[in-house]
Amino acid sequence: MQWVMGHAHLSTTEIYLTPTRDEVIEGVLAHHARQSRVQEAPPPQPAPGYDPKSLSVLFGRPS
Asked: Do the beta carbons of residue 34 and residue 28 sit within 8 Å?
């Protein structure tokens, strides 16, 4: 990356690798928003041939 950006010193490139406080907060909030959408999605249907009741017992999910 240093070569691509044309930096003579790696320390110059490193300034782009350290996130700011606001970037970290934004990333954490985005992560939690994605996780809440995943948790709200209904569980996928089992593949043909699997008994949903057996899978619910095995994985602890409602059938």
From this structure: no
The span from the first CA to the last CA of the chain, in angstroms, equals 50
CA 44/CA 12 separation, integer angstroms: 47
For 18-57, write each residue's pLDDT tens digit: 889 999 999 999 999 988 887 677 777 888 999 888 888 8
- In this prediction the pTM is 0.42
Domain carrying residue 9: 1-42
Domain contains 20: yes
Evaluate whether residue 12 is within a structural domain: yes
Q: How many other CB atoms are found less than 10 A from the CB of residue 22? A: 8
Distance CA 21, CA 33 (A): 18
